[in-house]
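Protein data:
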Amino acid sequence: MITNSQQLINDFISDMASFASKDVNPSQITFDSWAAPHSSKDLPPGKAAVYVFSLTGLAKAPAGINRVIKVGKVGPNSNNRFRYQHYSSGSANSTLAAAIENNPVLWGYIGFPGNTVNSGDWLRKYTDRNNFYFSDFAICGVFEVYARAMLGSIYEGSLSGGA
């Protein structure tokens, strides 16, 4: 789990002002955390979100506790993506479950036991989730890029094929 979500937000706001000459009102960004084992909730109405999956200590993975494995974003009309699609490899293009299943070379690193378990169940049990909510979708997109850079997520880009 991201141990200091508020600090990430504060740094983002500061860097936006310093380097992008853009003022971001701190009240425009809220967050919550879902500790493992977690259940998904709905995206708040009218909000966009950046979500972060990170490993718990239960995963017993060389990647380490709190290691970020995925940062993503959804728009205000993407509740299905926010709520459940990443937990099922066949639910949509480019899900975290599919990225894990399709890249066995990383299974040992993240502590995934392989296709003998349901990847969605594994994600709920062995990852925490931090969610950052925005009323401004443009700021949400910039925050996603910022969070990826600051947190160094494992599953990003095209990971559809495996060895």
Observations:
- The mean pLDDT is 91.
- The chain is about 35% helix and 20% strand.
- Residues 5-151 form one domain.
